[in-house]
Amino acid sequence: MKHIVILGAGSAGVMFANRLRREVSESEVEITIIERKEMHFYQPAYTLIVFGLEEPENLMRPTKDLFYDGINLIIDEATKIDAEKSTISTAKNGDISYDYLVIATGAKFNFDEPEGMKEGLEKAENVHTFYTFEGALKLREALNNFEGGTIISSVAEMPIKCPAAPMKFIMMAEDMMREKGIRNKCKFIFTITLPAVFSREPYVGKLNSLFKAKGIEAIPNFAPSQVDYNNGVLKDYSGKELKFDLLSIVPPHEGDQVVENAEGVGNPAGYVACDKNHMYSLNYKNIYSIGDATDFPTSKTASGARKQAKVLVDRVKSILKGEEPKATYDGEIICPMLTRNKRVLFAHFNYTESLSPAIESYMNWVLKVHMLRPMYWNLMLKGLM
Length: 385
Ligand SMILES: Cc1cc2nc3c(=O)[nH]c(=O)nc-3n(C[C@H](O)[C@H](O)[C@H](O)COP(=O)(O)OP(=O)(O)OC[C@H]3O[C@@H](n4cnc5c(N)ncnc54)[C@H](O)[C@@H]3O)c2cc1C
What we know:
Elements: E1 2-7, H1 11-23, E2 29-35, E3 39-41, H2 46-50, E4 60-62, E5 71-75, E6 78-82, E7 87-90, E8 95-97, E9 100-103, E10 107-109, H3 117-123, E11 127-128, H4 133-145, E12 149-155, H5 165-180, E13 186-191, H6 203-214, E14 216-219, E15 224-228, E16 233-236, E17 241-243, E18 246-250, E19 253-255, H7 257-260, E20 287-289, H8 302-320, E21 333-340, E22 343-349, E23 360-361, H9 362-380
Parallel strand pairs: 1-2, 1-9, 2-5, 9-20, 11-18, 12-13, 12-18, 13-14
Antiparallel strand pairs: 3-4, 6-7, 7-8, 10-19, 15-16, 16-17, 21-22, 22-23
Helix pairs in contact: 1-8
The structure holds flavin-adenine dinucleotide.
């Protein structure tokens, strides 16, 4: 019997573990999953919390309640990956050996840069991030109390989880202030470090025309260097300065320390260096990675993690049968963008091409705002879709 160890019970780890348990018997494979957190959060709805479209209690469930029987959950910190010996060290449970390792440790935030961001988030009323659960709740309150001024949505560094989210935020904030009747007292700015607001057509063209129609100023090639929260100024490395009354910033992301420290496995940013189609480590064929922990050249999304988990289960099933695995991941992801109240546009693409037109619709809104969260808890995490 083979032992598969999964590191991280976020979206990717849970989807993979449950799908594998459903499809492969306990006599063929033992499944162990290591996770440091007692509580699992549905991050894609943080944006909805900000605009009062979702309630916080719907977005969390105890990690222990997420799994089918026949999966060993260990709540612990993984401290070391020894790829040569095929073992994982943990803080409290000693060393655990594996035949196959699936790294699903996600991405974490680095609050140390830009200068002043961390202090601003901790102390100031005018600096926010909705990339954390607590931050989303705080920003909801700030927006409700906002009476006019400049709102900036800024991305500190790429890559980030769901690159559409900071754009959803600025478009929905503009819509909210319009509905509050104070649009004429407000200015809206979106900054990104890249040369364009999004990575590919037809979405770039559509977003540019939406921003223009809404009067949102888009500033590409803007790499924030300092958050001066006392004076309400966001500075970038080229010397540009933008005044704000409310700043929503996405902090830089990096992979987990345990991956960064794993020789031959992690890259300097802490992501797993792996084959973008076959998902195995470039150096160790018994180590795979899925979800935000990878260095795949596509957006870090739960939709991508779902696809990857599915493909990886197929690959593992072939390996267990002694066959050459054929299933591959083509980079497919779906990014829902709220463009205004009751309208959502889906950006759907893979490594090579866009797969859907750039159309905003009410049906997309119903799917994103009302259906995806129950589908996540009841179908996606259970490996049923
Ligand atoms: C604001 C926001 C909006 C988003 N919107 C969307 C959207 O609309 N659509 C979409 O598809 N995606 C969206 N996403 C992205 C989506 O949430 C992530 O891509 C997804 O959660 C990735 O899953 P993951 O399992 O790879 O990482 P995570 O869900 O982050 O899980 C990683 C897990 O690994 C654990 N871990 C890490 N290191 C260790 C260790 N050393 N020991 C033990 N445990 C460890 C962590 O505790 C964590 O639970 C959004 C994200 C945010 C923040």
